[in-house]
Amino acid sequence: MKRSEKEIKLDEKIGFGCSLKNMFVGVVKPEAYMKNGQSGKTWHAVMVVLGMSIMLYLFTFWLPYNKLFGNGRLARTVDEAVKDFALSNDGFYYEGRYQWSDDENMTYILVDTSIKDSSAKEIESLRKENVYTTVFVVTGAEILSMENGRMSTIKAKDLYEALNEVYHASSFGKQDILDIINKWDTPVLTALYIGNVIGGIIKTFWVSFIVAIVGLIVSSALKLKVSLGAVYRAALYIRSLWYPILLLISTYVWPAKKTLMTLTFMICAAYMFMAIYRYNAQNPGELRGKATMLSGSQPPNL
After folding, report:
1. InterPro entries, per this entry (predicted)?
2. DSSP characters over 120-154
3. Long-range contacts made by residues 197-200, C-beta under 8 angstroms, separation at least 24?
4. For residues 43 and 194, is the Cβ–Cβ distance under 8 A?
5. What Rg do the C-alpha atoms of the chain give, in angstroms?
């Protein structure tokens, strides 16, 4: 009994284990990425993206920040190092100045309520130098959070009003804040970890789409016919390996995240080119044959 073309294509599909192996083999044999794109299943690629994102942010966010802040560590650090302070409707008050950074230069904290404006020279300098992965600055009017040059702000007045709605106090002193930190440090870290994972997955899908467009341009230049689905699956595997490697380097070795993320895209684009080129070289006629049939040309008469 003659088998249908659909049944033959189903037999050509590779399994999840083979797709996962090809993601690592592709480092030295880029054509393996294109094999995943041509013969792999989309849900396999999605599962790889999900799994790699969970593990990546476990090592780059949860473990380092939980070690610093989780399970009461933040409250103990604040209690031991910071003098008494107050938060009221008028803003923050802290006598003196407090500075802290961890040994890996990942996090820097500055408390100086004499600073009244987020445009102060010292804050601008911290933002531009980009020495630390994360910077927290508490001024008299706001809490500033800077991560890789991006700054967000929480107004002291807004924070006081939010706390006052729950705890109903005219002002909040050191012990009040410590009690709140002890209650919420781990839940907040967990929520931030989940947010990082979700954000990382979305970013991977989006950047992989751009890399896939590069793949379509490459295939067009080589006069090959490759579907968007095939190059997109290949791009997901390429980025799922190289993005974690470069992000781990930026977290623990060289905190130049913008430079490394640009390098990540360049590496992914280069691997996409090599994947298509070498796959076509090892499977001559497969991609060109598809191009011929889809372009409307007829087979020669025998």
Report:
1. DUF1189 (IPR009574)
2. -HHHHHHHHH--SSEEEEE-SSEEEEEETTEEEEE
3. 197/53, 197/54, 197/57, 200/53, 200/56, 200/57
4. no
5. 26
Do 288 and 201 share a structural domain?
yes
Residues 216 and 134 in one domain: no
- Percentage helix, strand, coil, to 5, in the chain? 65, 10, 25
- What band does 12 get if pLDDT is binned at 50, 70 and 90? low
Residues 83-95: pLDDT tens digits?
778 888 888 888 8
Cα-based angle 211, 216, 222 (whole degrees, multiple of 5): 125
> pTM of the prediction?
0.66
Q: Does residue 4 register a pLDDT over 70?
A: no
Same domain, yes or no: 141 and 214: no
Angle at 221 between CA 219 and CA 227, to 5 degrees: 20
Mean of pLDDT over the chain = 81
Q: Which of 284, 246, 290, 286 is nearest to 265 (CA)?
A: 246
β-strand partners of 111: 98, 138
Q: Alpha-carbon torsion 33, 58, 50, 249, what sign?
A: negative
Closest CA to 177 of 120, 108, 111: 111
- Identify whether the C-beta of residue 204 lies closer than 8 Å to the C-beta of residue 238: no
Q: How far apart are CA 90 and CA 267, in angstroms?
A: 51
The mean pLDDT value for 175-186 works out to 79
Cβ proximity of 181 and 75 under 8 Å: yes
Residues in the chain: 302
Place of tokens 């907040």: 188
- Cα–Cα distances (Å) from 272 to 199, 203, 300, in that order, read 24, 18, 34
282 contacts: CB under 8 Å, gap ≥ 6: 31
Under the banding of pLDDT at 50, 70 and 90, the label for residue 238 is very high
- Same domain as 290, residue 202: yes
